[in-house]
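Explain this record to help learners:
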Amino acid sequence: MNDQINRDVVEKIKGLAEQFRQPMTDFLADLIRIQSYTGHETPAVDRTLAELKLIGCDEVWTDSAGNALGRIGNGKKIILFNAHLDTNEVSDASQWPHPPLEPVIDGNILFGLGASDCKAGVAAIVYGAAILKKLDLLKNVSVVVMGATLEEDAEGFGLRSLVERDGLVPDCVLLAEATNLTIRRGHRGRCEVHVRTQGKTVHASTPHLGENAILKMAPVIEAVQGMNGSLPSHPVFGDGTQVVTLINGPHTPNSVPDWCEIAIDRRLVPGETKESIVESIQAIVQPLGGTTSIPIQPVLSHTGLRLDGPSFYPGWLMDENEPIIEIGKLTFQSLWDKPAVVDVWKFSTDGTYSAGVANIPTMGFGPQEEPFVHTSQDQVNLDKLVDAAMFYALFPVIYEQIAGANNKN
C-alpha cells in the first residue's frame, strides 16, 4: 500500500466530508421528520432513494422487500453499507425534550427519533458513498448502500431477502449502528420461545371439575427462570440469559382456562441453534406438563411482501484478526493516527443474518452512542456524523488495495 497516496486520499476525504456536513445534516433532519415505524418505511425509503440519486450513484433501486439501494462503482467485489430506516414507536411523546419528529440542533447535537438508531447511520453511509463518487476512488470494488427496512422488529429479514431472494451477495458488510466511532465485531443473538401448558376448561363456578392451565404454568415459570446460570456461556459474551416476558391464555374470565402460554426472551451466544434451544427448555418443562416451540414471526414489508420466519436471530463474532476487522482498524488509524477500540454490541443488528446465518464477514462502525438508543434522549453528535462518513469513504479504498495485493500473491 502506498503511504503517500493514502495520506493524500485521507486529506481529500476529510476535506470533502467537511464540505458535505450541511447536506448530510439536512438529509438526516429530513429522515427524522418522516415517521417510519417498522413495516411503514415507504416515505423514508423514497427520501433515501432521492438522496442516493442526488449524490450520483451509478444505480439506484429498491429490492423486493423495499430496501433503498444505491451502487457506486462497477467492481466485482461488493462492500455493503447497511443502516436501517425503521424506528421503534414512541409511547409517550411528552417525555421527550423536543417533539420526536422535529429535528432540533442544540450546540453540536441533533435530537430526534431515530437519530441514534439508525438514521444517522443512513446519513453517514450515503455520504461516505458520496465522497467515493466525487473522488472516483474505486476501480475493482463496488459499494452498495442499503437503507434497510424491518430491522427493529425482525433483524436481518430485509437483508436476507436482498441476498436470498434478489441475489445480491456482498463480500463483506459494514453496519452503521451505534458504536460511538469504535469497531464492533459481534453481538449475542436472541430468540423468542413459547411454552404452553394444557388444562381442561369448565365453568368458573365449578373449578374442581376442570384443570387450570395457569396453575400448571406456575412451576414451569419457576423452572424456566431457574435455568439462568446454567445456559451456554461464551468467553467474550458471558452467559446466555432468558426471561419470561409475556403470559397469555383464553379471554374468558368466567371459565377455568384450558391453556396458558408464556413467551421467553432468550439471549444467545454464538453457536446456539433453534434445535438446541428447544431441546434444552423442553427437557426442563416437559416433566411439568409444558411443551416448547419457537414461533413463526409475521413480517410484512412495506411493499406487501410477506417474509414470515422463525423468531430466531443467531449471535456472531468475528475474530479480531479477520481481514475485515484488520482493515477497519487500519482505516481508523489512517484517519485519526491512533488505534481503534474494538468491542462487541449489547444489542442485536442485521448482522444476525449477514454473519450469523450467511457467514459474510461483518463489522460495525457508526457515529451514534448506545446509551441514547431507544430513549427519549435520542440524538447524534454532528462532528461524529462527519467522522463516520470519512470512515465509510476510506474503508473501501483500503479494502481494495489489500484485496488487490492479496490477489497478486
